[in-house]
Amino acid sequence: MLRFLVLYTALALGANVAQAADLNALKQGQMESLVTYSKPLPVPPFSFVDDAGEEHSLAEYKGKVVLVNFWATWCPPCREEMPYLNALEKELGGDDFAVVAIATGGSNSPAKVGAFFDDEKLDAIPRFYDPAAFASRAMGVLGLPVSVLIDKDGHEVGRMIGGAQWDSPEAKALIKAMITD
Fold first, then answer.
1. H-helix or E-strand containing 178?
2. Fewer CB within 10 Å, N side or C side of the chain?
3. 37 neighbors 156 (Cβ within 8 angstroms)
4. How many CA atoms within 13 Å lie on the side-chain side of 123?
5. Which strand (E) or helix (H) includes residue 13?
6. Of 162, 168, 155, nearest to 28 (Cα)?
7. Please, how many CA atoms are within 13 Å of residue 105, restricted to the half-sphere of its CB?
8. Transmembrane stretches, by residue range (predicted)?
9. pLDDT in tens, 37-80
10. Gap between the Cα atoms of 46 and 106, Å rounded
């Protein structure tokens, strides 16, 4: 039994390294700025809330590839990339993938976020909040926007600092590769 566990662990670690190499091969266009890791990183536990004040966590997305985006209504590059995230969720969101956009900081009230979502016709991504910035601090976010790519096992495999066109062919190819892996 011990031999089986050692073999399984070695295979799993090899698969993770292979996935990182595969992601590096797919980094083209704006995705060249995606920082990837030779080994997936653990994601610290953190929570965020929805419009109703209900608490959520990434545990709800276990088994899915997740793109967690930390943003703010006052941040121009954040505002610019939100329609791309919405389009990505419309196209790829479902059983295998989700965009989790979290408005971080106290200045992102549900009223401000709601008005922005309405103005931009953002209708596919849920409205989540991190009013005290606990989630963003737990994830080591120092500036906005930051998007964190999480694998099906709940590990961080990539991070984009700054805005990106997440509905581009390059971004979709990268995420589709993670979904089918």
1. helix 169-180
2. N
3. yes
4. 3
5. helix 2-26
6. 168
7. 15
8. none
9. 989 999 999 999 999 999 999 999 999 999 999 999 999 999 99
10. 17
Q: Which residues form the domain of 78?
A: 2-180
In angstroms and rounded to an integer, the radius of gyration of the C-alpha atoms of the chain is 17
Angle between helices 169-180 and 76-92 (to 10 degrees): 50
Detail the DSSP E strand segments found in the chain.
35-42, 47-50, 55-57, 65-71, 97-104, 128-130, 146-150, 155-161
> Residue 25: how many CA atoms within 13 Å on its side-chain side?
8
How many domains does the chain fold into?
Answer: 1
Packing angle, helices 76-92 and 110-120, rounded to 10: 70
Q: What is the CATH number of the domain that holds 62?
A: 3.40.30.10
Task: Determine the Cα–Cα distance for residues 61 and 56; give it in Å rounded to an integer.
Answer: 10
Query: How do residues 22-38 score in pLDDT, each as one tens digit?
Result: 777 677 778 889 999 98
pLDDT value at residue 23 = 76
Give dist(CA 108, CA 167) in Å, integer.
24
pTM of the model: 0.87
Strand-pairing partners, residue 150, are 66, 156
Q: From CA 89, how far away is CA 67, in angstroms rounded?
A: 10
